[in-house]
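Sanity check

After download, print the first record. It should look like this:
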Amino acid sequence: MNAFFAELRQTIVPDRDSKHGPLPPLLLAMTFVTGLVDAFSYLVLGHVFVANMTGNVVFFGFALAGARGFSITASLVALAAFWCGALAGGRIGASLSSHRGRLMSGAASIEAALLAVAVALAALSPSPVTGVYRYALIVVMAVAMGVQNATARRLAVPDLTTTVLTLTITGIAADSVVARGRGSVAGRRLIAVFAMLVGALMGALLVIHVDLVYPLVIALVVLVIVAITAQRAGTADPKWVRDE
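Expected structure tokens:
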């Protein structure tokens, strides 16, 4: 139990000399953003995700089978846009790999710029969101999530991928002492699951009961904070910025 709470603390408020510095809480913030934007995309743009590409592959299969409410075009557009974002994120990661603070700040800034465009599109779009606005929002947000996912992959902080939880949830069980594993790092993994859950819950509540643009506004604010924090934390060139 002590190890569990120690993992939670180190993930949320890491020590200054920790291996990954402030990256764990910043990646948790991005995980929260994932919940917000996927809640928006699924509830506002139809049965499509902009971050969860596993879901889109499944939805594409449903659409091919003729299931009602699923779109072949929307699924393919989301997949293609996410791929482009991941490609861009990979190039950004390659050019900034020597300084993880600049990588996190740069990627979050690009993502924030894309989310700002999404906020404008959502504010201008009719209700329900259809046609050009629907696909423009899918493209902009999926590209942003592709950049985020590629960046998290490059940063390689264990169990904080920001968009994928299947392996995280599997690890909680499969690596546990009950399963004769070496310990599941359940604290970090559970807080990642919780961050996405809270984002999805907040996003859904805002879309259903308040205004559809608010989840994107909150996501934008969070990303701006992440970008500024990463930039300032890495200015003094601490040890955690080096990928060693």
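If your output differs, re-run the checksum step. Summary of this record's structure: DSSP finds nine helices and no strands in the chain.
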